[in-house]
Amino acid sequence: MLIRVQKKRNQAGAWSVVALHASRFIYFYYCLKETKPMKTTKTILTKIVHILIVIFTGNTQASFTETVAEGTTVSGEIVAPQEWDGSGHSTQRVFGTVTDTILRGDSQNYSPPNWAQQDVFSGGYTNNITVENTGNQSIFGGTAENTVIKDKGIATLKNQGIFKDGKVYKGGFFIAQSGTVDNINVYENGRFDISGNDDGVIVEGGEITHGATGVFMGKARINNLKISGDVAGASRDNTHFSHAYIGQSGRLMLSAGKITESTIEGGLFSVIHSEASDTTMKGGALR
């Protein structure tokens, strides 16, 4: 009798699990049905795989704080596209403080990619943010410190914001349109561009390492930047390099603007329709 009772209990437990999975499948079927028409077989298969993962593991995506109010602090979150929201992106708006957070989009399973966006407004502050895989950090007058950009991640500085002690690694892209860049390091296959608007961009220190690139245009003042990679200055808005250092593998192609009080240790320095003064040539080539 005890054996029969135990068997019935096991059967009931098994059927309850089946019922749970079935209810989950029905729910996600209708979620999938309500989404926009999918264009490719790859997208369809990806959706099916995601459904099965949720059904059989019970995993759901972690939520994040969408609006960080002034005077509040949020830490340790992952900003990522919500699987079933249909919008293709997720956004965190920062008026307070956010630390130790990852912005992670999804460019592998979706075309166009699903974005993970963080907007840092005036008075907002972030520290130790990692931007990757079509994550996007936009600094609208706030301050971003110790941001790491890599693997198709993008960060943009606007509205007189501050970008401090940032690092750009392989596949990462940082753009400065307005504000202050205080010590930036760009590594191999990373990119740092300036497109300074009327408010201008100020760069104070950092390095473009070997294999990294940059295109500097618009109204900008670049101070104490070490160049070991490839940098092009092409602007009629008086892009100004001051106290620059061009290393053995560095190249600065200055087709507009000016350079003053700098040192050319090696590499290649090209000046076309530009001004160079109080600059020391210790090696390298001048064109």
From TrEMBL:
InterPro entries attached to this UniProt entry: Autotransporter_pectin_lyase_C
Protein name per its UniProtKB record: ESPR domain-containing protein
Organism (species): Candidatus Williamhamiltonella defendens
